Amino acid sequence: MGIAKIPAVIWLLGAVLALGVSISPAQGAKTRHHDFFIKESNYTRLCKERTVLTVNGQFPGPTIYSRKGDLVIVNVYNQGDKNITIHWHGVDQPRNPWSDGPEYITQCPIRPGGNFTYRVILSEEEGTLWWHAHSDFDRTTIHGAIVIHPKLGTTFPFKKPHKEIPVILGEWWKADVNHLLEEAERTGGEINISDANTINGQPGDLFPCSKASTYKIPVQHGKTYLLRIINAGLSNDLFFAIAGHNLTVVGTDGHYTKPFTVKHIMIAPGQTMDALLEANRADGGRYYMAARTFASNPNIEVNNSTATAIVEYMNDTPARGPPAFPANLPGVNDIDSATAYTAQLRSLSSKDHPVDVPRQVDERMLVTIAVNVLPCPPNETCGGPAGNRFAASLNNVSFTNPSVDILGAYYRSVHGVFEADFPNKPPFFFNFTDVDNDPIERWATKRGTKVKVVEYGTVVEVVFQDTSILGAENHPMHLHGYTFYVVGRGFGNFDEQKDPATYNMVDPPHQNTVSVPKAGWAAIRFRAINPGVWFMHCHFGRHVVWGMNTVFIVKDGKAPEAKMLPPPQNMPTC
After folding, report:
1. pTM of full prediction above 0.85
2. pLDDT value, residue 319
3. What is the pLDDT of residue 11?
4. Which of 140, 328, 492, 519 is deepest in the core (most CB within 10 A)?
């Protein structure tokens, strides 16, 4: 046993003795250990070498392999030059917000030279999730896949694939993206767009200096491959397709779906999709796998590029010649294709993978999503709209990170860190989705560190409503600590009298990140049975730093198993 693991063991034993509970893995599962060393590494993309932060020198980072119910212990050693935290995206972390990861929400960051041991408690998740940095824009290069296999003695609800392949979609900047963030925060202006989309860290051979390093997937005719697709990007929804092949979607966000076959998928930042690829081309050959930006707001500058990888048939004679390009990859503004794809997502809803959609709602929230402005300080020049500073909000509250973590303040009853009055509805109503009418007086917002407090066991319905303020667009809304049911979605303004009648209460998708449609709404439901402090935010990086966030605080229940676990002894300090 290494010295670094002794405190973790002591804490685990202490938790067992103090509470009479254990966070050991579920019966038949395992405890798995990983060491993550945050370090600077040099990578060359687009003809230019850059120094980036990585985990263990790898970009993308290492894949965590596990089984349903496992306990994964990750020792993170910060050997980089800046503060860092790691989030385990889509892992519910039952009763354990201490290891969730967002900086100043559930922890203070790990300082350079410091370390922290995360305890990642897997429970109901099965499929593909991912981990990433949750500090500044560090997730651009600090991210990796989490593969959760079925428990021993069980299997996939589909034919076992010949091979499983993580496919991580991301972005690359020629410049240091955190320097770009610092400049944008100084001026209040936009953040420069990325220079390329990537597939498993590579832009592909449509970009300069990239042909030799294009990612390649060898396949054999007649075999089936499970692609574990992750959108780790900071800025872009993405269309994804493979020339000459269909994809059969079987899962999303760590939960199985009813299988459906498509020519392309649309995946938002934060989401995962599991898709089966049948290598059924008897003639073999080489085929581009392509990821192209889907931009729902034509008024903002986007990285309108297409990343490629190559699927190569490796039969008796290896494939040669130029790859075919996917003819059915939608265009950058094809909102109809994105909408049609998302509408097909349905939970598997089988005996082994049932759904449990809450029927009765205790607390309803209508949460408006907006890009806004804050006034430019006196004697300064700002780069946002009309000389203001860019901001963003939920229910017109632009979230501000405190200087200490909210979880610690809540647990220790420290006052003055947050306000427990996040509103259940916007402060004023108008035609939220009238894209032709955006008066400047609606642009303003106010800063605050407002959270929503709910009692244990409360059934919560949140309707996310996009607005046309400074341009309507899709928003990938992510809730930490919970997997929710996406019971409804539509375009226009949500009608509380009529729209609930259209909800899918039979087999709605079970997700942790919902793509709220441009100039539309999406409704989610969840039972608040995971006590703790849980971040809710848009997964577009610029919207997070602008304030499109809030926090749910779920109180402890009465039973011992309904209470938060105690904090580990080695929590980082601010």
Report:
1. yes
2. 67
3. 35
4. 140
